[in-house]
């Protein structure tokens, strides 16, 4: 279990102090697919980086299975919005790079990464360079890199945010299939309501300025999720609820709401 | 369109050279000044000079100095460049020296080098060092600073140590600018050795130029200068070839990062 306890984070800017997160507390259960949903600037990425151990909170603590984290750990692996692949290394080296950073020799890392590239459907592209791949394929490499270190917890920072709509939907379907096979604990940051509803067990909706917890929504859709679930009444109800929560924060009039 | 490109890429430089040759030859034939002998005379002399034992010995001297001084200078320059580029403290401590040495004309330092190393090869090697070291440092440190901070953060999230991060992320990220620095340094090493030989040693190709100039043997002088020019061209090409070898991911990147197969792997 991951406990996020009274996390606050302020940044020093030229205009003075900026409070990005204020007193954020929630829990993520083991093997749960947990999404953090919020508009830009709500501090959701900062929050994820705090859980990753990349950013220190000003106040509060993150407990994983009861013990406080003090930095990045073997139990967690991150998938980044902009993929963050080494442009000078081929797909296999990139997928093994997490292992390599954890101390495994390069050759061994490459070999150990191979089955994970199979899993994300890239076995034919192991010797390609990132710039030869589409965005969706690059993010598959990013996912394989995270899976290869066999983390208990997968931290995903708007992983499909940089992809076009079709690719995005395809990636969501593949991710939920992957998750059905091996239920890791996932914390998934997104600003897409559809994505949050389709993938998650629970969705935390965040408020802005400062970033804080607005509401926790249970997603009672049955698993395994089929793409057709998107057109079910429950799904629509859920995304409508999310929209009602988000609408006030971004100051958009009612007429612009999706059907 | 393609034909036009081929024309401008391969034919135009040749045309440019031919026009240059014609102008040189004409001025030489007009006998305007002893400083401009006809090109054909120079070329005829060149064949003689370039095969003479004196020239080959001097060439060996000059190249030898570059070969001794340049590789260790590059090595130390890259190491210092990494320190300056990655660690604030090193930058604060060394920046002022680097900028000073980059702007002082090296000829001004030669008398001091002679006081330290004497009138011989030591001073020549030291001149090459000063001429090339700081260029390598500045280029490497700029290269280090181009490192994508997202890559470093990613490595840290996977528990990468500083050592691994420098070796696997910072160094490759800095490589293009570092190698550009090496290329500039190679050119400067050739300049440096000629200048040093002219001023200090009167050995090598620099010494040869000094003596030929003093004796008004203009054709031979041009032959030597041409040789130095070719030397520069060849060494640049060698470094460029090395760059392509060292950075295979830059080789076919002409059309940018977006070209790639469509999303159909799933």
Describe the structure.
- The complex is a heterodimer of chains A (259) and B (266).
- Chain A is α/β, with parallel strands linked by helices.
- In chain A, 34% of the residues lie in helices and 25% in strands.
- Chain A is built from 8 helices and 10 strands.
- In chain A, strands 6-7-8-3-9-10 form a 6-stranded mixed β-sheet, with helices on both faces. Chain A has a 4-stranded antiparallel β-sheet with strand order 2-1-4-5, with helices on one face.
- Chain B is an all-alpha fold and 266 residues long.
- Chain B is 83% helix and 0% strand.
- Chain B has 11 helices and no strands.
- In chain B, helix 2 crosses helix 10, helix 3 packs across helix 9 and helix 8 packs antiparallel against helix 10.
- The longest helix of chain B is centred in the last third of the chain and has 40 residues.
- Chains A and B meet through strand 6, helix 3, helix 5 and helix 6 of A and helix 7 and helix 8 of B.
Strand content of chain A: 25-35%
Largest sheet of chain A: 6 strands, mixed
**Low-confidence stretches of chain A at least 5 residues in length (pLDDT < 50)?**
254-259
Care to count the β-strands of chain A?
A: 10
Number of beta strands of chain B: 0
Distance between the termini of chain A: 37 Å
């Amino acid at each position: 279990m991951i406990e996020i306890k009274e996390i606050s984070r302020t940044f020093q800017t030229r205009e003075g102090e900026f409070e990005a997160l204020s007193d954020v507390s929630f829990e993520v259960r083991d093997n749960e697919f947990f999404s953090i949903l919020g508009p830009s600037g709500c501090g959701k990425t900062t929050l994820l980086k705090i859980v990753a151990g990349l950013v220190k909170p000003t106040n509060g603590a993150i407990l994983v299975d009861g013990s406080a984290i003090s930095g990045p750990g073997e139990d967690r692996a991150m998938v980044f919005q902009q993929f963050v692949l080494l442009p000078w290394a081929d797909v296999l080296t990139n997928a093994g790079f997490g292992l390599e950073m954890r101390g495994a020799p390069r050759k061994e890392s490459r070999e150990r990464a191979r089955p994970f590239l199979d899993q994300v459907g890239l076995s034919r592209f192991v010797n390609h360079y990132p710039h030869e791949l589409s965005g969706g394929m690059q993010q598959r490499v990013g996912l394989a890199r995270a899976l290869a270190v066999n983390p208990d917890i997968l931290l995903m920072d708007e992983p499909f945010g940089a992809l076009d709509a079709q690719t995005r939907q395809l990636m969501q379907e593949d991710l939920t299939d992957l998750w059905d096979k091996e239920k890791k604990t996932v914390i998934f940051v997104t600003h897409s309501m559809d994505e949050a509803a389709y993938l998650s067990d629970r969705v935390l909706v965040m408020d802005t300025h400062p970033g804080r917890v607005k509401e926790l929504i249970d997603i009672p859709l049955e698993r395994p999720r089929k793409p057709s679930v998107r057109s079910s009444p429950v799904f629509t109800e859920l995304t409508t609820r999310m929209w009602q929560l988000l609408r006030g924060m971004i100051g958009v009039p009612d007429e612009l709401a999706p059907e | 369109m393609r034909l036009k490109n081929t024309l401008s890429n391969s034919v135009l430089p040749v045309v440019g050279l031919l026009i240059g040759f014609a102008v040189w030859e004409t001025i030489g034939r007009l006998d305007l000044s002893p400083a401009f002998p006809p090109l054909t005379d120079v070329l005829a002399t060149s064949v003689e000079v370039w095969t003479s034992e004196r020239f080959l010995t001097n060439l060996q001297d000059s190249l030898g100095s570059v070969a001794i001084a340049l590789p260790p200078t590059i090595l130390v320059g890259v190491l210092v460049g990494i320190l300056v580029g990655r660690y604030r403290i090193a930058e604060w401590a060394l920046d002022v020296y680097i900028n000073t040495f980059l702007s002082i004309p090296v000829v001004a330092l030669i008398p001091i080098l002679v006081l330290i190393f004497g009138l011989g090869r030591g001073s020549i090697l030291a001149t090459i060092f000063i001429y090339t070291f700081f260029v390598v440092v500045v280029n490497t440190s700029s290269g280090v600073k181009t490192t994508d901070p997202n890559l470093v953060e990613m490595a840290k999230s996977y528990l990468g140590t500083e050592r691994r991060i420098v070796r696997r992320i910072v160094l490759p990220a800095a490589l293009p600018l570092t190698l550009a620095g090496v290329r500039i340094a190679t050119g400067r090493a050739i300049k440096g050795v000629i200048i040093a030989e002219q001023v200090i040693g009167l050995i090598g190709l620099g010494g040869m130029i000094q003596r030929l100039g003093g004796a008004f043997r203009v054709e031979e002088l041009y032959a030597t200068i041409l040789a130095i020019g070719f030397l520069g061209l060849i060494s640049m090409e060698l470094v460029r070839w090395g760059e392509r070898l060292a950075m295979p991911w830059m080789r076919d990147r002409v059309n940018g990062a977006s070209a790639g197969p469509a999303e159909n792997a799933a």
